[in-house]
Amino acid sequence: MKKVITFRQLFYMFLAISITPILTLIPADLAVGNSSSAGISVILSLVALIPLALLIVVFMKAYPHYNFYEILVELFGRAVAKVLIAFYGIWSFVVLSTKVWQYTLNLQSSIMSNTREQVFFVTMMILVLYAFLRGIKTIFRFAEFVLVPMLIILFIYILSAIPNIRLDYIKVANTLTFSELCGQAGYIIAAAGNLFLILIYGDSVKDHSKSGKLIARFLIATIALFLVLLILVTVVTFSLVGNNASAMISTPFYVAMKGISVLNILEHFEAILIIIMFLSDFLGICLYASISMRCIKWACSVRKMKFLYIPFAVFIYYLALVLCRTQFDVEYLYNTILVKWNLIMQYVIPFALIIVHYSKIGVTSTRMQRVEVKSKQ
């Protein structure tokens, strides 16, 4: 595999695809409580995010230039690795179909309410197919190119909203139990779990020789920026429209920004948010389409994948229509099934893998010690 991706591009991609969930799904899910409970949930999410970051560092250092499938082969052998990859492939199909729906609903609920979902599906698939023909390197470079402008615009939105903040909306004591707070933290953890997916591209990273300090630095900065942006967006959203209203809106931050002006000069510029969410959705769909194709490649031992692009696009089109029919179906699928499934695929299985990794190291070191003892005898 050609080394075409840098660590910076990997982490930029994670932040870019996280923007839409930060603006839509997570504030709506955290709105069950209030700003105080949301802050506590963010802190609780670190209990999972910090170990996940350490896990990524361990795997990157222990298996340099290995992708996720090759790591599984090293730990379990080829047969078990193919079964696990098939499981990851099914999961990525469902996530991809859900992301296509979420992108569609974001546009329908904001500026194109009378447009049929099939139009959005086909439009996105054409764009993704074009991106795939340009190559995965181009997709990651595009994420690197658009992330900084997206973040600058979001911070301008947040600063512009400060004069309109209602403190009585956010100065509320937490009323949720610890188990409910953990449930809210689960939504944050499920979105942040995309960090684990960088292991999928371990064989494509250019600068693996610098992995130790470089990965740690990028991980700390990425997680910190993710959480800071999440806190700011959630607090601003709750302080403008209230947590009760946020819970009932699919795009709460977009609604909160309506009527906000910059220096009393620029007004009604919330439409730029639609472009930002579209770019984030586009990159997220590209990423999960790439992961799905890689899982097919590894599970079926296929070398060339271009002939599968159009059949796979048609498959995802119909899978999305079969899985969901309405916004209620999408929300039910995500909140009831997909969040828990994400936690299993991005946390439970990886942490099980790290246990197997260290147990194999322990067995190997024990055998080496026995060999040394016998040789001395």
From TrEMBL:
Membrane topology: Multi-pass membrane protein
Keyword Metal-binding: no
Any one GO biological process: spore germination
GO cellular component: membrane
Species classification: Bacteria, Bacillati, Bacillota, Clostridia, Lachnospirales
Predominant location category: membrane
Family listed: Belongs to the amino acid-polyamine-organocation (APC) superfamily. Spore germination protein (SGP) (TC 2.A.3.9) family.
Name of the protein this chain belongs to: Spore germination protein
Location within or outside the cell: Membrane
Organism the protein comes from: Anaerosporobacter mobilis DSM 15930
Keywords: Germination, Membrane, Transmembrane, Transmembrane helix, Transport
Origin superkingdom: Bacteria
Annotated TM spans: 12-32, 38-59, 79-98, 118-133, 145-165, 185-202, 214-241, 271-296, 308-328, 340-358
Coiled coil feature spans: none
